[in-house]
Specification:
The complex is a heterodimer. Chain A is mainly β. Helix content of chain A is 2%, strand content 49%. Chain B is built from 13 helices and 31 strands. In chain B, strands 12-13-10-1-2-8-4-5-30-31 form a 10-stranded mixed β-sheet. The chains are: A mainly beta, B alpha+beta. Chains A and B meet through β8 and β9 of A and β29 of B.
């Protein structure tokens, strides 16, 4: 999967890929104070393309400890579980479920929005591939608006950027690919080489990707993310990130 | 639909009447059935003979045409207001130009019989059309055809064409007239279209190789369901829309259920034994978060427990033992029993003992009229209506022949419930259990279906108390001519501890392509489906109307709809007349005053001596109808 981190103060987008084994689960957000965990399970394309096997998020799991709600979203179905009931919703119809300030809203074959008490919003976008496509598979995208209120203790591959890091990019120069200049990125005093690139973003126009220009961090976000990407592997779809 | 002599091969019969062909064709489009039965008969005898066209129509279906052709003279049908039709018919009768037509009730069918005295060498063709909206029950649509040609047919052909825009979940034919014919019933199934056909040769129809009698006599039953990828499906066609809502994958709502069981003397024997069997199984199926109790009544009212209890295994076992100990005797005090049940539910509710999103039901099982306490049925209805709360529902099950099913049905209708007749036989326990299964799993409550006001009109009932698993909510309406090409609907409902909102947008006329490429589609399905739903709802509303003015208004609306959509309803008759209007017949909708027993409604024969032999069931009623001149006006106009 690829990640795009929007840094409003620096006015830049930073992107990186995480390539991990299919079946492994990555922690994306872990807010121990509010009791919120968001994880993504990796799936692979049907086969390698140009020698590379692409990976994606096949399942997104969300756990809201306070409300005792668990949401599991896959390209096949959406399951919402509370202490007493388990509900299955389908991507083939638009439906919303309101339960004590907890709103799960499915937009037919497009996205699921989870709104908690109106100050927290998470969006999962469905990417459907052609069923008989030789390589591509259905996968999911997760969008977390900057306004979503996580606590200061929040971590995870995305959650750690709740507090915007000090980032500057300078010394833009030609790289091996003339289309993609390289530059030096300084993050909280550490320096790394980044490459100019574009990534697809589906939030603005669902179903129609918008190209986002970003500075790409190589080696699974090494130097930009806190620690090593393998630190973010968790055992269960509803697990919290542990340092 | 005219007579043809394309086949001269003979079928030798004792009475020299040849059934030239017998064709049955059902076209099912989006669960709406249009059935045609056509029979061509020749009197080969050298003397006049009575020829009978005798078919069975499922209850709930509306007959919408009947035509005859006698030696080239066509009799065609038209729907008229009852008294208008009767007057025209009377005039014909006065001139001796009226023929016999008979409609009678049996348990779940109506018999339709036309009888003609036919001169030697004459050919007659009968053709009847009826329409029926299939109701989904326990996840299945059932279409039954009653194939009874009565004699060997040179050409016998049964075709059922099904077109379902949602695609089929499954299609099967569990009954094939008799098991011997199973191999002759062919099923062709595609994604959205299916064809079931049955075309036995003359020899295949025979009861034995040398017999001249037919073995073709029984039901052809088709069961199917459509794919349920979406909870609801909107179909827009020819200016009408149909909205089918049947969500699944929802956790069941807890229920509070009161079983009110008639244990009067008349229940003694098989009925009680079967009721106990059913109750044992029903109790077993209660879920731990269900609350229940049992009220059993004869002239006295008894309760297993005075309050609702949770369905733990201990309580269920105790209740089961209680039911098994019941010895039926005494009278029937329905009024007190129902009031007690309502009291128990209200008490539990007032004390806050009912789960917030639970569904409260009373299931009444009775086999007879009240004989003790309040006897006036209207007073019992009023007592129940004034005491019951709007969020409770009352379901009625009438066992056997002596039960006043109309009364039980009214009780259920007035109180958001369903009614069902249970036939008192070896199968009673299974029938009771099947009914319980229908209401045992409530999935949603307070369902409201909305459409943009500017886009639709004449929408049928759009709010419902409960939705049970396996059932289907159907709403229909008209599209306003100036409406946008897309129709949107929003359904709000309460599920277990959550509120749900379903939103659906469907493109108008999306079905055109599917239907254009299908030869066997009933093009008026949406229009007629809407009309049947509306008429049935108006009939139920009419039962509940409190003023005669309101009743009159509803009657007038039903009458107009029946005429516009060509349905025989309780307020219309089908007048069948020859091209010059000289000869007439009349078909009315039979009433169901006492349930199961057969009742002759219109009996008139141009040649009365050869009326069919009365069966043990019909004999008593038929004898009451003689002489026809006296009885007919009273029976026909008894509204």
């Amino acid at each position: 999967p690829h990640f795009i981190i929007n840094l409003p103060t620096s006015q830049i987008n930073v992107c990186f890929n995480i390539d991990n084994q299919p079946g492994s689960i990555l922690n994306l957000v872990s807010d121990p104070e509010q009791g919120i965990a968001v994880n993504g399970k990796i799936i692979a394309a049907k086969k390698a393309k140009s020698g590379k096997l692409n990976t994606y998020f096949g399942t997104i799991g969300m756990y809201f400890k306070e409300q005792n709600m668990k949401i599991e979203i896959s390209p096949e179905k959406i399951i919402v579980k509370d202490a007493f009931y388990s509900r299955m919703m389908s991507w083939s119809e638009s439906i919303s479920m309101d339960q004590n300030g907890f709103l799960v809203s499915v937009k037919k074959n497009s996205n699921v929005t989870i709104t908690v008490n109106e100050n927290m919003k998470l969006l999962v976008v469905l990417h459907r591939a052609w069923k008989k496509h030789p390589v591509n598979v259905d996968f999911l995208g997760l969008y977390i608006p900057n306004e979503t209120k996580f606590s200061a203790a929040t971590h995870g591959l995305i959650g750690q950027f709740r507090i915007e890091p000090e980032v500057s990019v300078y010394d833009v120069r030609a790289g091996t690919d003339p289309e993609k200049p390289i530059a030096t990125m300084e993050k909280n005093g550490d320096k790394l080489t980044v490459t100019r690139g574009t990534q697809k973003e589906y939030l603005t126009h669902p179903g129609m990707p918008t190209s986002v220009t970003c500075w790409f961090v190589h080696n699974n976000g090494k130097g930009f993310i806190d620690g090593h990407y393998k630190d973010y592997i968790v055992p269960q779809i509803y697990s919290f990130f542990k340092r | 639909s005219v007579l043809s002599d394309d086949d001269e091969s003979e079928v030798f019969t004792e009475d020299s009447i040849t059934l030239h062909s017998y064709k049955v064709e059902s076209t099912i489009t989006s669960h709406f059935v249009n059935t045609m039965i056509r029979s061509k008969v020749v009197n080969n005898a050298k003397h006049p003979q009575n020829i009978v066209f005798d078919i069975q129509v499922p209850k709930g279906a509306f007959i919408n045409n009947f035509t005859m052709n006698v030696n080239g003279i066509t009799f065609s049908g038209s729907i008229k207001e009852k008294s208008v039709a009767r007057n025209l018919y009377s005039k014909a009768r006065a001139r001796g130009k009226a023929a016999g037509l008979m409609r009678t009730n049996s348990l779940d069918l109506e018999n339709f019989k036309a009888e003609l005295n036919v001169p030697p060498g004459s050919k007659v063709q009968f053709e009847i059309h009826y329409q029926e909206a299939l109701r989904r029950k326990l996840g299945v649509y059932e279409h039954a055809l009653y194939i009874q040609p009565g004699r060997l047919a040179k050409h016998l052909e049964v075709d059922i064409y099904i077109t379902e825009p949602q695609g089929f979940g499954f299609v099967n034919v569990p009954k094939t007239i008799t098991e011997d014919f199973a191999g002759l019933v062919k099923i062709t199934k595609g994604d959205k279209k299916a064809h079931i056909s049955f075309k036995p040769t003359l020899d295949e129809q025979r009861t034995c190789p040398t017999c001249s009698t037919t073995a073709v006599n029984g039901n052809l039953l088709v069961k199917y369901d459509v794919k349920r990828e979406q909870s609801s499906h909107l179909q827009v066609f020819n200016g009408y829309f149909l909205h089918f809502f049947a969500p699944d994958n929802l956790p069941p709502l807890p229920k509070n259920i009161l079983f009110v069981i008639d244990v009067s003397g008349s229940m003694w024997g098989l009925k009680m034994k079967q009721t106990v069997e059913a109750m044992k199984s029903i109790l077993e199926d209660l879920r731990p978060d269900d609350q229940f109790s049992i009220v059993d009544f004869n002239h006295n009212i008894r309760c297993w427990k005075d309050e609702l209890v949770y369905a733990s295994s201990v309580e269920k076992e105790d209740a089961s033992k209680y039911v098994q100990r019941i010895q039926p005797n005494g009278g029937t005090n329905i009024n007190e029993a129902l009031l007690r049940a309502i009291f128990i539910l209200k008490e539990a509710s007032n004390k806050g003992l009912l789960e917030p999103n639970s569904v409260s039901l009373i299931v009444l099982v009775s086999d007879g009229d009240p004989t003790v306490g309040e006897l006036k049925l209207s007073k019992i209805q009023k007592n129940v209506r004034t005491n019951i709360r709007d969020d409770f529902s009352l379901h009625s099950l009438g066992i056997g022949f002596d039960v006043d099913y109309d009364f039980l049905e009214r009780l259920a209708q007035e109180n958001h419930g369903m009614a069902q007749r249970i036939y008192g036989n070896q199968d009673t326990a299974a029938q009771l259990k099947e009914f319980y299964n229908k209401v045992s799993t409530p999935l949603l409550k307070n369902i409201v279906v909305n459409y943009p006001m500017e886009a639709v009109s004449d929408v049928t009932q759009n709010s419902f108390h409960n939705y049970f698993k396996g059932d289907e909510i159907v709403v229909a309406g008209k599209l306003k001519p100036e409406s946008v090409p897309n129709l949107m609907s929003i359904i709000n409902a309460n599920s277990a501890n959550a509120d749900l909102t379903y939103q659906l947008i469907e493109e108008a006329e999306e079905l055109n392509e599917l239907f254009e490429e299908s030869k066997h589609v009933f093009p008026d399905f949406a229009r007629q489906y809407w009309a049947q739903l509306t008429i049935n709802q108006l009939l139920a509303e009419r039962n509940l109307a409190t003023t005669s003015a309101a009743k009159r208004n509803i009657t007038q609306t039903i009458l107009q709809l029946s005429i516009d959509h060509h349905f025989v309803t309780p307020f219309t008759s089908l007048l069948i007349e020859s091209e010059n209007g000289n000869e007439r017949m009349l078909a009315d909708s039979p009433r169901d005053p006492k349930g199961g027993c057969c009742q002759t409604l219109v009996v008139n024969a141009r040649v009365p001596p050869n009326l069919p032999q009365p069966t043990p069931e019909t004999g008593a009623q038929q004898s009451k109808t003689a002489p026809p001149d006296v009885m007919i006006p009273k029976l026909v106009d008894d509204d």
